[in-house]
Protein 1
Amino acid sequence: MRQKIAAGNWKMNGTSAALDELTALSKAPPMAECTIVICPPAPLLYRAVEQSSGTAIKIGAQDCHTATSGAHTGDVSAPMVADTGASYVIVGHSERREAYEEQNSDVLSKAEAARDAGLIAILCLGETLEDREANNTLDIIGGQLTGSVPDGANSTNLVVAYEPIWAIGTGKVPTFAQIVEVHDFIRTELNNRFGTDTGNSISLLYGGSVKANNAAEIFTAENVDGALVGGASLKAADFLPIIEALANS
Ligand code: PGA
């Protein structure tokens, strides 16, 4: 049985007042097999952990450095994230791959750093619209998997999130068949590399314009085990129906 995960990526949104959303989320009825992860901006991590302690909500960071410490002004290391009490970290989000020119090799090093710090990496993959239109989606996703998923990955240190870049923040969502095709492909690749016991245990999330009105259908796909949600995770009122759709899937 794979873990169902509803993960919220707040991106660069939220000051301390946003922590009230955690309180609102924590009032959700307990949902078996369904983990809620909130990834607030780094300055809120410690307080978010404190505020969600004793609830079903887990906290994650949005990025980590590849090194454990050193002369990297402005960066945050995986052990620092773990020290806040957070248990997850997003790595390889397309916004970072684009804005900071992060390559698969960088994402691999970040996922390794996360694993070594005892964190679960939510590793993001996704194609551009040009890749999609040129029928290169599976080649791109395959290359990202090979290049950025560490050896020794398993369900205790890795979650994979498929996020087509053209679907992030745009309101555009791939067809159900397109989501199924990519998620089935990722599952097969993980099974081939790590064996079926391990490959089948790793949760795969879909991300990109997930909303209350499209979540339930997306979650019917066999290899979609949850969602990585941006805009609709900022307010508990928007995120709760998505979590409920997952719990009922
Ligand atoms: P979105 O963002 O839900 O606002 O499209 C998803 C993400 O970037 O993780």
Protein 2
Amino acid sequence: MKEAEKLTEIKAFVFRLFHDDVTGHDDNHMQRVAEWSRLLAVKEGADPFLSEVAGWLHDVGDDKLFASKEEAIKERDELLRNLHFSERDITYIYHAIETVSFRKGKTPDTLLGKVVQDADRLDAIGAIGIARTFAFGGAKNQPLYRKEGGSSFSHFHEKLLLLKDKMNTPSGREEADRRHQFMEEFINQFNRETASE
Ligand code: ADP
Ligand code: NI
């Protein structure tokens, strides 16, 4: 089975699981993370195909998105076995995905994990990161901004502005710097427009 055919099946699986998401974790998020994972892999010398696969699948089984984490993981396992991935590649992909989430606070110990984590973090910053933050906030009934915190806007200071210094790879860091700068401009303008006496 060709790599392109495997990717077609994986995309269909991801589309089915994430298409209806309105929290910023829809299938387009998976696609952007998959594309950046491949791009960073090429630049950093990781396996481009396995990185792309891990990018597509990185949020499958995330407990904030799935009622049954076990069920999602089981389906993912069946998918890759049906697509004839070797046990070695499956283990490598799953181990990388395990270490990706920011909230779990882990630093990946493989190049594959580092690349996918960087790709996921890039999608949390810049213009798309800003859009996702307010989409997430809206879906969770969070206020736009509030002086005392606990708002979508406070997420920039709590997490998003910290991400550029946590990037794993030089090419990830380069793109993060660009996106960070744009986010700072947005924050300055936001503060100007919302400042009250
Ligand atoms: P993970 O990468 O593990 O899914 P998160 O769920 O923390 O990590 O973040 C995913 C995206 O969801 C963030 O980039 C952000 O856009 C949004 N998000 C998460 N928590 C918040 C929050 N408290 N307020 C606004 N947006 C949030
Ligand atoms: Ni993600």
